[in-house]
Amino acid sequence: MGMNTTLVGLIIVIIILIPVLYMIMAVSGKNKKKKKEFELLAQNKGIHIKNSELITSLLIGLDSGSKKLVFSNKDNLNREFQIIDLKEVTTCSARSSGLDSSLNWVGLEIKTGKNTLKIPFYRDEDESAHGSEPLAVLQQAKEWEKRISALLV
């Protein structure tokens, strides 16, 4: 009886795990494909990304050689693709809004002379961000702040 129970339990676990593992692999494959498309789009514009990352729905990359920052929404790569010339940037800082326990916006604030650009890493209303922990995303934004600030003149 003990062996039968163990066997039934093992079969149930396998039946549950197979679809979950399939979904994880499918999402991972889609994200890799989007990242490749993003890097190719940047390359077509003469930007050679050495460092890129997918954070919630934001694809962000850095070409330290030409001092260019590129970013886009993974769902609208071509339409929302933007290039920032870091030679024109005066400051870059990681920002968040909301309470520490429940942040509703995390991103970078980039100032170029009179203009300020906000790059959202996490928005509470963004459905693709709900699987992400806002405080972890804030740490990622701080890492990008360091990378970008190191290239500022």
Structural write-up:
The strands form two sheets. The chain has a four-stranded antiparallel sheet, with helices on both faces. The chain has a three-stranded antiparallel sheet with strand order 5-6-7. The chain has one domain. The mean pLDDT is 87. The chain is an alpha+beta fold and 153 residues long. The protein is elongated. The chain contains three helices and seven strands.
Brief rundown of the structure:
The chain has 153 residues and is an alpha+beta fold. It has helices at residues 2-44, 77-80, 134-149, and strands at 51-55, 58-63, 68-73, 82-85, 91-99, 102-112, 115-123. The strands form two sheets. A four-stranded antiparallel beta sheet has the order 1-2-3-4, with helices on both faces.
The strand order across the widest sheet is: 1-2-3-4
Number of strands: 7
What's the gyration radius in Å?
Answer: 20 Å
> Structural class of the secondary elements?
alpha+beta
Order of helices and strands: HEEEHEEEEH
**Spans of 5+ residues with little confidence (pLDDT < 50)?**
none
Helix content: 40-55%
Note the overall shape: elongated
- Nearest-integer average pLDDT: 87
Estimate nothing, just give the exact number of structural domains: 1
Distance from first to last alpha carbon: 73 Å
Question: What share of residues are in beta strands?
Answer: 25-35%
Number of helices: 3
Quick one: biggest sheet?
A: 4 strands, antiparallel
